[in-house]
Structures are given as structure tokens and as C-alpha cells.
Amino acid sequence: MNSTIELLAPRYDIAWYPWAVQYFFMIAVSYASLWLAAPALIFGKKAWLPTARLALIACVSTTLVAPVALLADLHQPLRFWHFYAYANTHSWMSIGSVVLPLYLISVLGFAWLAWRPALQAQQQAAGFSGLIAKWLSMGSGSTPKVLVAIVGLAALLLSSGIMLYTGAELAIVKARPLWNTIWLPPMLVATGFIAAAGLVLVLNRVSGICSSATTRQMLYVLLAFCALAGLIALSWLLDGLNAHVGSVAAALESVRYSPSWRSTALWGGITGVALFASIVFLVTRSAKRQPALFAWAWLLGLVAIHMGWMFRWVVLMDVQHVARNSAGFHHYGIPAGSSGILGIVGTFGLWLAAILLIDLLLPWRQAQQGGQLSANDQDASRAPLTANKGAPSHG
């Protein structure tokens, strides 16, 4: 008897859109920037103060924008209240819905305490900036350093919760072997620090601060976390090659015959090695040559930001191309609308608007660990941010 068997594979829409990439990227830059601000603003390391000021504005701006991207990824943003009305302690997303608002509040409180002395010094300024300073500084009382440290430590603790839940909510998905691995959460953290350090390098350049100490510190941070990311990637690969069962072995098997995944792995490896080698070249130059070379370090910062964002794109979007219930790979074309290119550009536009508003209204360049501003900082806080622009004075 002759018979025909038909196999029908249903079409599945992707579960997470580029909004999720934006959220995972922004929140990673947020918590990593907070840790980069901690040495000076929490633990009082004066040598890190220029870096901390740049890192804090990066932290606050990305912390404000990340939840917007997360709400957009819910597809129906107004249903966020379901997380609280139907709480589930076994769901990492549900846990994250509690940790994220607490983290947001702690970061804003920490930033306010760090900026408050400069706001108080700016109260007598004319115009809108003085009015904003009077309103935000909430009085003329001093800002205790111990209070700054306590709120900062609380923010660091909650940031650890963000690291844990954002990594765990991917790693627990057994249906996706490329997600279901213990190596993914630490890799998300490592690439988050790479992107944050890169952003600080870029802000150091575009803000006009151009601190050589900040450049040197961020290059060493990049060096450490590039090495860590490479070690994690190598461990993940060896785990899959040496194991015949397990999520890593299944992940490698699922992309074994995909030219696009081979090119992605090649791109990631070459970019990482090139970034690491470039940093080693910069930090090993003689003291006389370093200042000239450091002027171009912001380009490495752009590469680092690119690495952090593209890693999340590969993990969150490209992994969804791998079919779960049939053979082969599913094609995904990025739409032009709000669920695609417009959403990506719009999120970065919103972040740019946030950082420009902070630059316009808040004296972030004078952030410090409580107490009172020095005379030099008071003069700088009263001066407009564009005071250093224009033609130089000659006599």
C-alpha cells in the first residue's frame, strides 16, 4: 500500500522583539556604570572622581530609559500591573518586577545625594537653573558622606539582583539550548562592563573633560573584562566540545551547519581580540606617547559599546531564528516600525534626550561623596557648562 505522510510546521512569531535588546543593553550599562562610580562616590577614592562623575550620568540616564524599553517589550505596556496583582515567586520576571523599581529608586537617590552639594552651590544662579537648583536641593543642610555611602551600597546590592535576574530569566529557558547554560549570566555581566567602560570613554571625550586618568582607568577595566569575556567564551566552547549531552553540546549542535552563526562567531572573536590587542598597545606605550594616543581611545569606546549591544542582539534575536520544532533556521527581517528599526532608534534617542537634559539642568560635573564643595568646585558649579567654549583670550 502506498501512503503519503505530510508534516506541517506551524509558524511561530518571535517572542522577544528588539525592545528586549534595548532593555538588556541599557540595564547592563546602568549597573556596570554604577560600579564604575562606586570607588569615588561610595568608597572615597579621589583618583576615581572624574571617572565617577561620567559613570554616574551614564548610570542615571540608562536607568531612566531601560524600564521604558522593558514596558514596550510587554507589547501591552499597561499590563505591567499583572506582575504585582499575580505575583509568582517562581518566576524570575516576577522577581525582577520587584527588584527593578527598588533599583531605580536607589540609583536616583544616590545620584541626588552626590549632586546635592553642587545644587546647593548653584541656588544663587540666575534664571531657570537657579530655580531648579533650589527645588532639587531641598534645603541648605549638609549631605553626610555616610548617607551617600549607605544609599550607594544599597544601590550596589540591588544592582547585583538586576545582574542575577536578567541572566537567570534567559538561562532557565530549557527550550533554547543557546540560552540554557550557566555561562550566559556571567557573559552578560562581562559584556555589560565592556559597554559601560566604552561609554565612559566616549563621554569623557564629547563632554570636553578629556581626563587622562579616566582614559587610563577605563582602558584597564576594558582589558580586565575583555579577558574575562574571552575566558567565559572559551569555557563555554570547551564545555560543548567535551560533552556529549547537556545544553552547551545541544547548542553547538543546533548551529553546527549554519554559515551565519559561523560568521557571527568569527566576527565576535576577531572584534574581541582586536579590541584587547589595541588596549594592550595603548597601555604599554611610554608615558610621553600615551597622551597623544589616549586622545583616540574614544574610538575603542565605540567598539566596546558595539560589542555589548551586538552580543545582546545575537543572544536575544538571532537565537530565536533557530527552529525548536522543525529543522533549519527561521528568517527574521527587522521591520521599520516601532517593533524594529524605529524602536531601536527611538530608544537611543530617548537616552540622548535624557543625558542632554541632565547636562542642561544638573551640575553633574561636580558630583562628590557628600560634604561641601571646595572653592574651585563651587566656582565651576556656578559657571555655565559652555564657559570653556569660544575663542581663547590672549592677554
From TrEMBL:
Q: Which domain of life is it from?
A: Bacteria
**Which protein family is it in?**
Belongs to the NrfD family.
What's the protein here called? Polysulfide reductase NrfD
Question: PANTHER family attached here?
Answer: PROTEIN NRFD
Keyword annotations from UniProtKB, A to Z: Cell membrane, Membrane, Transmembrane, Transmembrane helix
Query: Which residue ranges are recorded for the region named Disordered?
Result: 373-395
Query: According to its UniProt record, what is one Pfam family this protein matches?
Result: NrfD
Kindly list the residue ranges recorded as spanning the membrane: 20-42, 54-72, 92-115, 146-167, 187-206, 218-238, 265-283, 295-316, 336-362
Q: Looking at the UniProt record for this protein, which Gene Ontology cellular component terms does it annotate, in alphabetical order?
A: plasma membrane
Where does it localize? Cell membrane
Question: Which topology term describes how it sits in the membrane?
Answer: Multi-pass membrane protein
Q: Which InterPro entries match?
A: Electron_transfer_protein (IPR052049), NrfD-like (IPR005614)
